[in-house]
Write a structure and sequence with these properties.
The protein has 273 residues and is mostly helical. It has 2 domains: 4-127, no CATH class; 168-273, Helix Hairpins. The chain has 13 helices and 2 strands. The protein has a two-stranded antiparallel ribbon. The longest helix is centred in the first third of the chain and has 25 residues, at 46-70. The protein is globular, with a radius of gyration of 19 Å. It starts with a helix and ends with a helix.
Length: 273
C-alpha cells in the first residue's frame, strides 16, 4: 500500500496553511501521487495541476458542508450520519481517504465553521463550471432531506449555499423538487442482476409523476420538450464530463447512479406517452 504521498501531502499542506483544510487538501493531492496520477513533476502541466487541486477542493467542501447542513437545526440526526456514512460507502472510501472525509464532516459541524468563506473558495476553484456547482448542490439537498423532510433551518442553509454559488431561489426550488422526487423514484425501482440487465420500475401514477419531476417536467409537457430535458440532464451528469471538470474520481459511482435514474425516468415516461 502506497501511503507516503498522503503522509507528506498532509504535513506539507498543514505546514503551509496551518489549518485542517490545507492539510486535507495536501493529503488528497498526495493520494493522487500514490495512485500514480501525478508522478512526473516536470511533465505535469498547469492545467493538470489545477484539475487535481479542484478535485481536492470539491472533495473537502462536499463533506465539510455536508457536516454543516447536518448541524443546521442544532444537532446531527442519525439519518444524516447514516447518509454521510452511506455516501462514503458508495464512493468506496477506505483508509486515509475515508478518514479525510470524516475529518471534513466533523469540521463542518463545529461551531463557528466559516461556511461563507468555504463556499467562496469552492466557487472560485470551480470557476464557471455550472454542472459541477449544480452537482454539489444536489448532494447537499440529499443530505438535508435524508430524514424525509426539510425544516426551516435546513432550507435557509440551502438557500445560502445556492446564493453563494450563483443559483437563484427559483433554480434551487426546482432542484429541490427534482432531487426529492428522484429519491422517491429511485426507491420505487430495482436493478436486475440476471442476464437482462437494466432498470425495472414498478408501475403506478405516483411513480410516473416522480419520473416527470426527475426530468424537471410534468404530465402536460410535450414529448419533444421531455426528450430535450432528458438529453440535457444526461449531458450535465455524464461521469466522464464531470470528472474532466473537477469531480473527484471517487465520486464517479454517484454520478453513474444519477444518470441511471435519469435514463430510467425517461424510459418510463416514453412507455406511457
Amino acid at each position: 500500500m502506497h501511503i507516503w504521498g498522503k503522509v507528506l501531502g498532509f504535513l506539507f499542506g498543514l505546514m503551509l496553511s496551518k489549518n485542517l483544510f490545507g492539510a486535507l487538501l495536501g493529503c488528497y493531492v498526495g493520494h493522487m501521487f500514490d495512485k500514480g496520477r501525478r508522478i512526473d513533476f516536470d511533465g505535469l502541466s498547469p492545467n493538470k495541476a489545477d484539475d487535481i487541486t479542484r478535485q481536492a477542493v470539491f472533495f473537502y467542501s462536499t463533506f465539510s458542508v455536508m457536516g454543516y447542513i447536518a448541524k443546521a437545526n442544532g444537532q446531527v440526526s442519525k439519518h444524516e450520519i447514516a447518509f454521510a456514512t452511506a455516501y462514503m460507502d458508495k464512493m468506496g472510501l477506505t483508509g486515509s481517504m475515508r478518514q479525510q472525509a470524516q475529518d471534513a464532516f466533523r469540521e463542518g459541524k463545529t461551531t463557528g465553521f466559516a461556511i461563507d468563506e468555504r463556499l467562496r473558495k469552492f466557487k472560485r476553484s470551480c470557476g464557471h463550471r455550472h454542472d459541477l456547482l449544480s452537482m454539489f448542490i444536489e448532494i447537499q439537498i440529499q443530505v438535508a432531506f435524508s430524514d424525509g423532510e426539510l425544516d426551516t433551518a435546513e432550507r435557509a442553509v440551502l438557500h445560502n449555499i445556492a446564493e453563494q454559488l450563483g443559483f437563484s431561489t427559483r433554480e434551487l426550488d426546482k432542484l429541490l423538487e427534482m432531487i426529492i422526487a428522484g429519491t422517491a423514484f429511485h426507491q420505487g425501482g430495482s436493478y436486475q442482476s440476471n442476464s437482462q440487465q437494466g432498470y425495472r420500475q414498478s408501475g403506478g401514477p405516483q411513480q410516473l409523476n416522480n419520473a416527470y419531476k426527475v426530468l424537471g417536467m410534468d404530465g402536460k409537457s410535450e414529448f419533444k420538450d421531455i426528450k430535450k430535458a432528458y438529453k440535457k440532464l444526461m449531458s450535465q451528469h455524464h461521469p466522464d464530463k464531470l470528472i474532466a471538470k473537477g469531480l473527484p474520481p471517487e465520486m464517479m459511482e454517484v454520478a453513474k447512479q444519477k444518470t441511471q435514474d435519469i435514463q430510467a425516468a425517461y424510459d418510463l415516461i416514453s412507455k406511457n406517452k
